[in-house]
Amino acid sequence: QQQVKQSPQSLIVQKGGISIINCAYENTAFDYFPWYQQFPGKGPALLIAIRPDVSEKKEGRFTISFNKSAKQFSLHIMDSQPGDSATYFCAASMGSGANNLFFGTGTRLTVIP
Amino acid sequence: ETGVTQTPRHLVMGMTNKKSLKCEQHLGHNAMYWYKQSAKKPLELMFVYNFKEQTENNSVPSRFSPECPNSSHLFLHLHTLQPEDSALYLCASSQGVRQETQYFGPGTRLLVL
Predict the structure, then answer these.
(1) Is A83 in a helix, a strand, or coil?
(2) B31, B90, B91 member nearest A99 (Cβ)
(3) Nearest chain A CA: its distance from B1 CA (Å)
(4) Measured between alpha carbons, how far is B60 from A42 in angstroms, rounded to an integer?
(5) What is the DSSP string of B69-86?
(6) Over 90: is that where the pLDDT of B55 sits?
(7) CA-CA distance, A78 to A11, in Å (whole number)?
(8) What is the pLDDT of residue B59?
(9) pLDDT tens digits for B66-94?
(10) How do strand A30-38 and strand A56-59 relate by DSSP bridges?
(11) Cβ-Cβ contacts under 8 Å, B96 against chain A
(12) Of A4, A68, B79, B92, which residue is most buried, by most CB within 10 angstroms?
């Protein structure tokens, strides 16, 4: 059973546009929601993360929106740039036990000039 | 060298071979992880080590055998693998094991013939 569902699988956005990636989860025990960015030939790198006590977190052009009642969270990339072209993974974990991150299946973003 | 390094970057092996993947972290972290990344599937956590002690083994087949001689080094010993084991194997590390940011290496691309 997939703990975190991510969509879309791929996304093409014009330079300057807004990229939106969505994730949904079922386990209400999750209390930490990071987004990772992966470039070809590299491992994933933490981009931004949120905890459920806030509904939004912004870092530069990247914003996480969190809807606790709907059990959904999304990544918005404002003013998308070709350098943002990468695969993005959402993830979730809970406070108890080992650091077990449950990842989504990834979204391949392509920003065209 | 900084961050998390992995060797080799690419590996082709037959089903009867024995090989090892190596991971080294230069971040002074105490926890290390092995993940399997397959196309269109979520990252799968395989093993977790905290202070050299294995704390997680997510039902990984015995043909994968981890070894953690110290907090900076992690190995994954491979023997009698199957073609479906072909994937990108990622190593990660974190300061601790409770919702700490995980830092990933570039991965080893494994092909089993």
Answers:
(1) helix
(2) B31
(3) 15
(4) 24
(5) EETTEEEEEEES--GGG-
(6) no
(7) 14
(8) 84
(9) 999 999 999 999 999 999 999 999 999 99
(10) unpaired
(11) 99
(12) B92
Using a CB-CB cut-off of 8 Å, the residues of chain B touching A45 are 103-104
- For residues A37 and B39, the model is more confident at A37
User: What is the per-residue pLDDT for B40?
Assistant: 81
Those residues of chain A that have pLDDT short of 50 are none
> How far is it, in rounded angstroms, from Cα A73 to Cα A35?
10
Q: Taking CB atoms and an 8 Å cutoff, what residues of chain B touch A36? A: 104
Rg (chain A; Cα; Å): 14
Residue A110 to residue A39: CA distance in whole angstroms:
11
Length of chain B: 113
Amino acid identity at B84: E
Q: Shortest CB distance from B98 goes to which of A44, A45, A95?
A: A95
| Chain B residue numbers touching A103 (CB-CB < 8 A) | 42-43
Are A4 and A92 in contact by the 8 Å Cβ rule? The answer is: yes
Predicted confidence at residue A14, as pLDDT, reads: 98
CB of A99 within 8 Å of a chain B CB? The answer is yes
